[in-house]
Design goal:
mainly alpha; Isoleucyl-tRNA Synthetase, Domain 1; two-stranded parallel ribbon; globular; disordered N terminus
Length: 137
């Protein structure tokens, strides 16, 4: 196994650990800013659908990693999942309907549940890898 110490020290998207932790911190920032969880319709974008689909793969990834004894499958999945989240985050900057929070910092319950589930998957995956998620970066 090759270990690139310089890559591990980088604090950018080239470092997979940083990239995953940064997505966790971004979700935490949304949850911290949330005023109320409201029951309202969510504007569904392709990026949002992709993140939901990717989240649904988690159980299969865990089973496969366990059966094959290949923990790297979890690391690759978390990096890919984070990529889907970052894509959603970036797309919401250009589309006000796709933002997590409204002007009063309220969040639709479906998006709140999505962010909570997302964090749970990252937390569980990082724990398996012996890494703690970061709440702020």
């Amino acid at each position: 196994m090759d270990l690139d110490i310089d890559l591990i020290k980088k604090e950018n998207k080239e470092n997979p650990i940083y990239y995953i932790q940064y997505s966790y911190a971004r979700t935490q920032s949304v949850l911290d800013k949330t005023n109320k969880i409201i029951d309202t319709q969510v504007f569904v974008t392709p990026e949002l659908k992709n993140l939901y689909k990717k989240l649904l793969e988690w159980e299969n990834v865990i089973k496969s990693a366990y059966q094959k004894k290949e923990v790297h499958l979890i690391a690759h999945y978390l990096e890919s999942l984070s990529s889907y989240f970052h894509t959603l985050w970036s797309s919401s900057k250009n589309n006000p309907k796709a933002k997590f929070l409204d002007n009063d910092n309220n969040i639709p319950s479906d998006l709140h549940n999505l962010l909570s589930s997302y964090q749970d998957v990252l937390k569980d995956g990082l724990k398996i890898l012996g890494i703690k998620p970061k709440l702020q970066m």
